Amino acid sequence: MILRDAVPADGPALSEMAKRCYCDTFGTLYRASDLAAFLDGTFGENGLPSHLSDPAYKVRLAEAEGGAIAGFAKLGPVVFPGDWGTRTAELHQLYVLGPWQGEGVAPALMDWALATARADGADRLVLSVYVDNHRAQRFYARYGFVEVGRYEFVVGEQVDDDRIWSLDL
Length: 169
Fold this sequence. Notes:
By secondary structure, this protein is α+β, with helices and mostly antiparallel strands. The chain has one domain (2-168): Aminopeptidase (3-Layer(aba) Sandwich). Helix content is 33%, strand content 33%. The protein contains five helices and seven strands; from the N terminus they run E-H-H-H-E-E-E-H-E-H-E-E. The protein has helices at 11-26, 32-43, 48-51, 105-119, 134-142, and strands spanning 2-5, 58-63, 69-77, 88-96, 124-130, 146-155, 158-168. Strands 1-2-3-4-5-7-6 form a seven-stranded mixed sheet, with helices on both faces. The longest helix is centred in the N-terminal third of the chain and has 16 residues, at 11-26. The radius of gyration is 15 Å and the shape is globular. The model has no long low-confidence stretch (mean pLDDT 93). It holds the Pfam family Acetyltransf_1. This is GNAT family N-acetyltransferase. Keywords: Acyltransferase, Transferase. One of its GO terms (molecular function) is acyltransferase activity, transferring groups other than amino-acyl groups. InterPro entries: Acyl_CoA_acyltransferase (IPR016181), Bact_Acetyltransf (IPR050832), GNAT_dom (IPR000182).
């Protein structure tokens, strides 16, 4: 596994990987139109790929043998409502495709996210987790994250119940 910073040229492959990972995990929860709208807005050309050239965001890739993207993590400014202060960063996504889950990819990406947030001067890292994604919740709890609030996560016209988790750095 090779870990490296994403560059704009990674946009198309990263977009496809993120869509696949999201659909593998949550695709059955939504109407096709809601899912399509979400995927396009979040991972389409004006979403994730555009963040690869935006200095407010940092994206780290985990590449498998042959260059396939096995996972990624994205840090950036907090988008949750509320006053989070200027020294709080958000872990927007930490995605790992099924074949690489349990292989150390997620911990490597989380270690990068924590170190990078600290190096950038953040004193807190926040993220959101779908209320029924217990595997992700256990993963974040192992790092010391705690639930601090609720967040209405919108997928098309459907509103999901997400939980905001926080870690003091």
